[in-house]
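In practice, a research group might receive sequence data for several interacting partners and want a quick structural hypothesis before committing to experiments. The following worked case mirrors that situation: the sequences arrive first, and a predicted assembly follows.
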Amino acid sequence: MGMRRLWAAVRKFVVDTWFVFVSQALAFRHMWFWSVVMVTFIPLCTMGFLLLFGKPSPERITYILTGSITYAVSSQAGLSLGQWIGGLKMRRVFDYYASLPISKLSFIYGLNLNALLLCVPSSLLLVVISVLGFHHPVRDPLLFLVAFVLGGFSLAGVGAMIGFYSRSGQIASNVTQIVDPILVFFAPVYMPEEALPLVLRYTSWFMPTRHVARLLRSSFGGATGGEWQSIAILVGFIIISVLLVHHGLDWRGDRPLA
Amino acid sequence: MAVVYEVVGLTKKYPGPKEVLANDHIDLRIERGEILGIFGPNGAGKTTLVRQLMGLLRPTSGEIRLFGHDLVRDPCVATRYVAYFAQETYYFWYLKPHELLTITGRLRGLSAKEARDQAQTLLEKFNLQGLRSKTLSQLSFGQARFVTLLSVFMGARPVLVLDEPTNDLDPMHRRAFWDYLWEVNSQDGVTVLLVTHNVHEAEHVVHRVIIMDAGRLIASGTPWELKQGIEGQVRVEIVLTESADNCAEPAFAHCQTLPSKRNTILLRTARENVDTVVREVYERFPPGAVADLRVVEPTLEDVYVQMVGKEWV
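A structural hypothesis for the assembly, expressed as tokens:
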């Protein structure tokens, strides 16, 4: 009986998450192309810009490529959730979802899945550039996939909190744009850890981007050990996200509308 | 009769530098199968009230019970029993009609087949199958709004909360909607909470009315009961061939002058004064100046205007 109830709950979660995803994906069907362009453009430009300077050693290229993919995943799949939720709140679309018998987690992960899929083309493009331009293929596709998915979901909680608790959609957008570069440039994403100031070497442990970038580098350069540690930390971030969303967000409560 | 909602001492304050008292000790009981009209001017607290009844907003104090469940403690209960149509519905513009209906049905817990069948039935009932391939953005504004409105019927919830449902609908769609609302109410016993500004239109639909002003419930009763308050009075509508502004300010004996419209003077008077007023009108204006003159029974709108004391636009 217990297992049957658990199965029903899991099934409902998956179905609800899927239909939140579908509703959002279709609601933005007119913007798919430009959303993909937007997600691709900044990491691509950053990569091109960084490649212009310095010696293109294999290690440096790996950092720049994996850094750009990390940037795409963290900013689009995780943090853009804050902007997205802020926008939904501003248009009072929250009331539509909050009046349906779905959980907050289904809502958040439905949006998150949508955002994650939008950054698939940009990540694939970066991989293609890596293979064709630098003869630098992904050696461990499974690890690449794990890093991509865990990276996308590990920041969902932060994005959701920004979106829910910002006073307006505009503020959510501003806060997101402040947090976004902190997560990418204050952690060893585009550069080795030794290049960072000492304090950032320690604080970056608390940033999912550090671990996503590390896993992506391993997927390009071959495992060097310690990947399980990064995977465990990212899973930890996801668990914290789930707890934050489940206990910290009161979407049917006394929240500001816009 | 089974009680759907029981509201006791419901108070909602919006905190801030200037605290706003949006709902002030509201007591309300809504029974199964009722269509309850919630009327009131802008800012009266109607939407705040229904958002609390939907569990979308937490009351500052007071109790709300939905089918006996404590809605304040467990707001999610509302999602199992109530379908909500909010004022702002312009978000799903790029969904197709059957997509919006089916997705809403699935998210209300219907199986794929049930959602598909219910969506199909609704679209067929209102001759909307021809719009299947178009997104709402490609329909007229009223059509798109109508399709969005139909989504509240997905999942056959026993309670519907409708916030300004017929705004932007043309008369045909309005008629179709009210007829269908009556159908689900009379056949399935669906309870409806209807927030609207269109008192005149809603008068023919609602069983009971509450009127709100400044966060308080100032009147409650059937349309007939409320109209008893101005029993013995009639409204005289004088339609002039030219704008009433061009005429000298007409003051008629024994009459209360209501806010006039462009070519129309509205008076309220006791029934026994009608003959005198009609005579006075034709004496006051030159031949041909009066295009039409009607004596009508008071409407719910008149009750509303009298109670709220503001012009109804």
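Before designing any experiment, note the following. The mean pLDDT of chain A is 85. Chain A touches chain B at residues 12, 15-16, 19-20, 22-23, 26-30, 88, 91-93, 95-102, 250, 252-254 (CB under 8 Å).
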